[in-house]
Structure formats: C-alpha cells, structure tokens
Amino acid sequence: MVEVLVLGALAVAAATLSGTLTGRPAAAPFREAARLLTLQRRRTVRADVLLTRIGVVSLPMAAALAALVVPFGGRVALSTSVGVVWFNAMEVVAWASVWLVGWGVNSAYALVGGYRFVAQGLAYELPHMFALITASLAAHSLDLRVIGGAQHGLWYAVWMPVAFAVYLVSTLAMTFWGPFGHPLGADLAGGAALELSGPDLLVFLAGRYGLLAVSAGVAVPLFLGGGAGPLLPGWSWSLVKTCAVLSLLVWTRHRLPVLRMDRFMTAAWTVLIPATLLQMLVVGIVVV
C-alpha cells in the first residue's frame, strides 16, 4: 500500500503547486482544508442526501482503487494482469461521482455541471480508451508492469506520440481540470460542486487531485518506460517521471483557457478519434 500513500502525497503536492502558481503561499491548501473541515455542511431544499454523499465519497475512492495498480519500479499494491482495464473502470466511476453530486443536491446550476461532465466524458472516453489500447497492443499485455518493461529503452511516447498526447488531453478531461474545467465553470457559479461545502467539498476536491495524481502515475508505465533509467533504482525513476507529468498537468490549469464543451466534443469526434485510430493502426502494423 506504499504506492497508494505515495500517490496521495503527490496529490497534496499537486494542490500545493497549483496554489503556488497563482501566487498563494505553499501552506494555503492546508489552511483551506482546515477551514473546510470547520464549516457546516450546506443542504438545499429537497436534496437527495444519500446520492450526494455517494457521489462525494466515490470520487476519492475511485482514485484510491485506481492507485492500487500503479507500479513503482517493480512493485505494485494489487498484482493483476489487467491493470489497464482496472484503471479504466475506476475512471468511469468518476462519471457517476460527478453526475450524482450534480443531481443529488437539487440545484439547477449543479445539475447542468453534472451533465456537462457526462457530455465531456462521452467526448474523451473513446480517444482515451484507444490510447490505452495502443500501448497495450504494442506490449501484447494489459499489465502495466509488462507494458513498462516492454519499452526496451525506446519509450512509447517517442514512437507513438499521438497516443501519448491524447492520453494527457483525456486525463485533463477526466479530472475536469484546466481547459476542461467546464463542469465547474464560473458561468455556473461553480457547476457540479456549487452546493457542496465544508467536509463534502474537501473530500470532493481531494478526489479530483487524487485522480490527477493517479493518471500521472499511470502515464509512466504506459508511455515513459516505467521505472527504467540509469543509476537510480526503479521506484525513484517512476517517482521522478510521475512528478514531471503531474507538474505539466497542473501547469495547464493556469496557462490554458477553458474550452467550450461543444468545441471540445467536435474536436474529439473529428480529430482525436481518427488520430488515435491511425496511431493504433500504425502500431498494429509494426508489432503484429
């Protein structure tokens, strides 16, 4: 379970880095967490409290369960031959989490935010799955450890850059982060998380940062050679590469504008899907 704790620590580091990039002190996320813990939960009229709580709690749970299959060097918390499938399944839980939060609070803006995320999910999920399949196809395995070890000094990010780029884009969309933060958009006064307050909001945001950290960790065995590297042990290289990917993802929030949902959906269906299919075809021709 050390791997899960490491990814949890990286999620906290991501929150700290995000605040630092906006000029806030490094301790700001901890102060905000303490403030939210002391706030009273807000409840709207005729809200479905059970569905809301399920949505709030299931988001960090999905991140924690996905972290079980992320290898650091040769170690992994949950040894399974279908780690890619497990990760993708936990990612789909995020769909239900955000939508349940938007639906359960009985608020118009929150509901629109929830449906925005569902629409965003329909746009990014197919390119995301094709990117995962491309790496799995090249390694002839769904095991993240095998995929990382199959790159033999030439990272998949080098000879399948389209799949890697699409994976990063879909990661941002999956975590409704940066240019894909429309489900929590300011035009909806906060969107899906509008009516969350106190500990509920803290747990929800923790799940978001957790998914971001886990997705960065999965990118390492998928496209960056896993723990392979000179001098340092495997787990150290996995950690360094995860930190690099996570820093890039956090940076995008403060440097790229938020995309309109309809434009992203159009781009996903007309650009991302054909591009990943073509990349998968090239990989299939090379390795089969």
What does the model show?
The protein contains eleven helices and no strands. The mean pLDDT is 86. By secondary structure, the protein is an all-alpha fold. α3 packs parallel to α9 (198-223) and α4 packs antiparallel against α5. It has helices spanning 2-21, 28-38, 49-67, 83-104, 108-139, 144-149, 156-159, 161-174, 198-223, 234-252, 261-287. The radius of gyration is 19 Å and the shape is globular. It starts with a helix and ends with a helix.
Strand-helix topology:
Blueprint: H1 2-21, H2 28-38, H3 49-67, H4 83-104, H5 108-139, H6 144-149, H7 156-159, H8 161-174, H9 198-223, H10 234-252, H11 261-287
Give a brief rundown of this model.
The protein is mainly α.
What's the overall geometry? globular
Number of helices: 11
Give the C-alpha Rg: 19 Å
Helix content: 55-70%
Helix/strand structural class: mainly alpha
Which percent band covers the strand fraction?
under 5%
